[in-house]
Request: fold
Amino acid sequence: MRDWLFKTEPDAYSIDDLARDGRTRWDGIRNYQARNRLRDEVNAGDRVLVYHSSCAVPAVVGIATVVGTAEPDPSQFDPESPYYDPRSSPQAPRWVMVTLAYQAHLPTPVTLKQIKTDPVFAELELVHRGRLSIQVVDPHSAALILERGGLQQ
DNA sequence: GCCAACGTTGGC
DNA sequence: GCCAACGTTGGC
Reply:
């Protein structure tokens, strides 16, 4: 099992929305490096730290698990979708998605500020590759973040 | 709303 | 294949 950090803008889709839905298609990823990770490295059962970006307090806010493996993202074929990609086709899909299942909120969100100011997290992609939407988290950092967020493991 | 970082596009 | 122009992300 690997640990990942997936970013979402809470105005668009928040951890509360995921808790309500139980599971959701994590669609709309339109970055090749993120796509390649979803396709090649993200596995069923992997743990995902859900992170809120572009908001008042950017933070890790909860955890989810990956259901199944990557599959074509239907929104790429939908002209009405903001994620429509006219260069893609069902015969040659360009973008993939995975499904996430809600696990828990962190009782206390772990903020980007906390993470940036603690040297133990200096190697995290979140600190120096902030724009990547699908990030690797090493097991030790993941455990620390959950512990600081008040989650028993 | 600004702007730095960085990803993508397309002409050559 | 390079790289300038351009677009997007996301913290502040």
